Amino acid sequence: MVVETIKEITHKKTILFGADGMLGHALQGALPHAQCIGRGKVDITDHQAVVKFINLERPAIVINAAAYTDVDGCEDNRSYALTVNGNGPGYIAEACSEVNAVLVHFSTDYIFDGTKREYHEDDPPNPINVYGESKLLGEVSVAKNLENYRIIRTSWLYGSHGKNFVDTILSLSKQMPVVRVVNDQVGKPTYTVDLANKVPEIIGYDPGIYHITNEGQCSWYEFARALIPNAVPCSTDEFPRRAKRPAYSVLANTKTPPLRHWKEALKEYVQNKRRS
Fold it and tell me: What are the two backbone dihedrals, phi and then psi, of residue 78, each rounded to the nearest 5 degrees?
């Protein structure tokens, strides 16, 4: 079923927004036939430009990986975050509806407040920071404007071609005798390549919301310890950030076969990084 779906997709016109980002680069590998669109070509916050472009191209599938992902920056730039992460996806969904295209849109574990140990696809969201608020608005905007959507919620992304926790920790470990990492925030690290490779399968599923992460959960400290020997634990209170983070943002995948364990994916990423 999955192989047949992938073959079918390769023969359909696909547009990828946010192609220049970390997830966008991984999606280029998973969907090599896709027409790649960066912000320089189409700004998803420009309603008229988005509708005009999609109506002109008339794709069968649209992938939206464009987002403002600076969690702390969103606190200081709330209006911009809501526009990019909230309104932009709605404009894309509206245009997809006009041309009968399928839309795959990416969201986040940060739409939840962290008061539960695990979140299912149908659990009610309650964001505690502006980034989560803006991404939830994006979900609502997509569902309001289009029926044939796939919203993929994921978490703790890392991969090539972008700033991420793994690269930051590896760099800090070389610069400092010890690296303090919070041990009271728990989630699921997700490799962009694994997530991207799952997208063709999700397109073949029914419309709706899907939680897609690598399997297994850990704290940020445990994540760091899998990478470096000189990580030491600390509490969130000892390491304050501009944006509040949920203590538990573990996404339960109840709808699809699981991805591999995060430790296996991390090992591959680090090995590839060393070879490059």
Answer: -60, -45
Q: Which amino acid is at 79?
A: S
Domain residues for the domain of 67 are 2-275
- Specify whether the backbone of 18 is left (phi greater than 0), alpha (psi in -120 to 50) or beta: left
Residue-wise pLDDT for 144-200, tens only, equals 999 999 999 999 999 999 999 999 999 999 999 999 999 999 999 999 999 999 999
Number of neighbours of residue 44 by Cβ within 10 angstroms: 24
Q: Name the pairing type of β-strands 149-154 and 208-211.
A: parallel
Structure token digits, residue 166: 């793994």
Given this model, what pLDDT does residue 153 score?
A: 98
Q: What contacts 24+ positions apart, CB below 8 Å, involve 33-38?
A: 34/63, 35/59
Domains identified in the chain, total number? 1
What CATH number is associated with residue 86? 3.40.50.720
What's the distance, CA 39 to chain centroid?
A: 17
pLDDT at position 1: 43
Q: Using an 8 Å Cβ cutoff, are 84 and 44 in contact?
A: yes
Which residues belong to the active site?
Answer: 131
Helix, strand, or coil (residue 190): strand
pTM greater than 0.85 (yes/no)? yes
Kindly tell me if the per-residue pLDDT of 3 is higher than 60.
no
Using DSSP's 3-state secondary structure scheme, residue 128 falls into: coil
Q: Which positions ≥6 away from 52 have C-beta within 8 Å?
A: none
Helices vs. strands in the chain: H and E counts, helices first: 11, 12
